[in-house]
Amino acid sequence: MAECLFCKIVNGDIPCNIVYQDENVLAFRDINPVAPVHVLIIPKRHIQSVRDLNDENINVVTHIFNAANIIAKELGIDETGFRVVTNIGEDGGQTVLHLHYHLLGGRNLQWPPG
Ligand code: AMP
Ligand code: ZN
Questions:
Q1: Whether the predicted pLDDT of 61 surpasses 90
Q2: Ligand 1 pocket member 53 (CB < 6 A)
């Protein structure tokens, strides 16, 4: 989608700090980190949110979690633990309407979230 912020990042129109990419997903540092490790993992193809996953595109979730494991290991938080979370819609706190999973770690994360 031409006007989508994360599609612009995928296309290279907006710079980002890439930590991992493969054919299906791109992962980059969140611009406003809330933990020592805060990476966003997104599908390269535009999908608005979890609500738009279907039989045709659901495989990308496998690729996203595969990337999460690779990145957690690479950044040294695989053994200390981490969180992978995706916000959906208004009450979920989603501000960018391109599916993304936050990979958070490097400190003791609290539960429940605010
Ligand atoms: P959410 O609130 O779940 O939709 O998350 C959107 C995330 O995108 C927030 O954590 C923002 O800090 C992050 N963000 C927004 N713009 C950028 C950008 N240009 N580069 C990296 N992260 C961004
Ligand atoms: Zn997009």
A1: yes
A2: no
Q: Which ligand number lies closest to the CA of residue 8? A: 2
Q: Do residues 61 and 49 lie in contact, with contact meaning Cβ atoms separated by under 8 Å?
A: no
The best mutation among 95, 100, 103 to test binding of ligand 1, ranked by most ligand atoms within 8 Å of the C-beta, falls on: 95
**Which atom of ligand 1 is found nearest the CA of 96?**
4
pLDDT digits (tens, 9 = 90+) for 43-56: 999 999 999 999 99
Q: What is the mean pLDDT of the chain?
A: 97
- What is the Cα–Cα distance from 88 to 13, expressed in whole angstroms? 25
Which fold, 1-77? HIT family, subunit A (3.30.428)
Can you give the residue ranges of every domain in the chain?
1-77
* Residue range 1-20, pLDDT digits in tens: 889 999 999 999 999 999 99
- The C-alpha angle with vertex 88 and arms to 48 and 97, in degrees rounded to 5, equals 30
